[in-house]
Amino acid sequence: MSTQPPEYAKKDFMSDQIIRWCPGCGDYSILSQVQTVFSQLGRPKEEFVVISGIGCSSRFPYYMNTYGFHTIHGRAPGFATGLKVTRPELSVWVVTGDGDGLSIGGNHLAHLLRRNVDLNVMLFNNRIYGLTKGQYSPTSEVGKKTKSTPMGSIDNPFNPLAFAIGSGATCVMRSIDVFAQHLRDTLQAADTHRGTSFVEIYQNCNIFNDGAFDAFTDRAVRDDRILYLEHGKPMVWGKTARWGLRLDGLALQVVQLGDDLDESHCLVHDATNRVLATMLADLDGSDGFPVPVGLFYSVQRPTYDGAFGAQIREAKVRLGEGDLHQLLHAGDTWKV
What we know:
alpha/beta, 3-stranded antiparallel sheet, 8-stranded mixed sheet, 11 strands
């Protein structure tokens, strides 16, 4: 029997369904990168499962030639957990949005993250409700004028990365829909992590929130606005000028590199440092700070599905395989 990994092309993961996203939507780019990454992971195609809730992003399972579930609003984490603990050999990917995952689904997502189920979460963040036609979302900025907030939102927005870190996620990353190679690298890294990988993906909604990320993703400015995080590497960025991060007491400080300062004076990224990851998650490009992308935080601890499987095996050793017929006819019974 051959042990060679299967060879696939991107087209092998493209379904025959008509893609019904608005022309120009960032979801097209994400879909393309996911199909490419899946073809390169060396797993049989039948082992991939894509599970979603409700929203524009949640149409994803229809467009992937894999197994999948299109579930109900905010509940994809629960379905994914159930599948992974019963079929631990599968590669499970949850697709959600800032509305689906952080509003009605926030509680479900938090428990998935704290349990550390060995699966991958892709949260598409466009800072708007797209499928329901442009209401403000849990990540919309204060003052956002929409159909549901005509005078401007007064809610303080969720920070998805801080939410994930605070919920106990063991791998937290961010990428951007139009950063094709970076997004592919990020998703491949998510696949290799044992535990819950949480990937926030900035995604442009060109109909209801067009240009939400242009200030740091546009080609003309991105090199001077984006900080690419790599574990063990100095945190520096910039094309027209070189900048770096260092600690000033207990706060991050931006310094310009030059004659007196070089990379050796900058903070080296430690992706195992939860406090540092939280500080980096708070950077939003304001006050001269960059917008970080890449790996914020990564540690190893036992997975929920691994512990669940161990308990099942222990129970079988102690109590035997079990007999459903005997269980149903044991003790008192009632007819309803």
